[in-house]
Amino acid sequence: MPWDAASFASKHNRKLKGAAASKAAEQATAMVKAGVPEGIAIATANKTGDRMMRKKRGMRAIYSGEAK
């Protein structure tokens, strides 16, 4: 299913705004077109979008590989 930023954010991650929602929708759509199961594509895109939102707010990452 192709998503746009608004539809992805409203259905799959209401915290996403702006560029993060757009990137997540783009990523999930590309993954599904490449044959990745929809659930995995959504989860991966949500993780990417959440990371972008944390960076935008200046929050440090909670995962070991992302620390400043």
List its traits:
mainly alpha, single chain, globular, 3 helices, 68 residues
Q: How would you explain this protein's 3D organization?
A:
The protein has 68 residues and is an all-alpha fold. It has one domain. The chain has three helices and no strands. It has helices at residues 5-12, 18-33, 38-57. Helix 2 (18-33) packs antiparallel against helix 3.
Provide a compact summary of the structure.
This protein has three helices and no strands. By secondary structure, it is mostly helical. The chain has one domain (5-66).
Number of strands: 0
Poorly predicted residue ranges = none
Q: What's the mean pLDDT score?
A: 83
Rg, Å, rounded: 12 Å
Largest sheet: none
Terminal Cα separation, in Å?
35 Å
Shape descriptor reads: globular
Number of helices: 3
| Succession of helices and strands | HHH
Strand content is: under 5%
Protein structure class: mainly alpha
Instruction: Indicate the percent of residues in helices.
Output: 55-70%
Tell me the count of domains: 1
How are the SSEs placed, and which strands pair?
Elements: H1 5-12, H2 18-33, H3 38-57
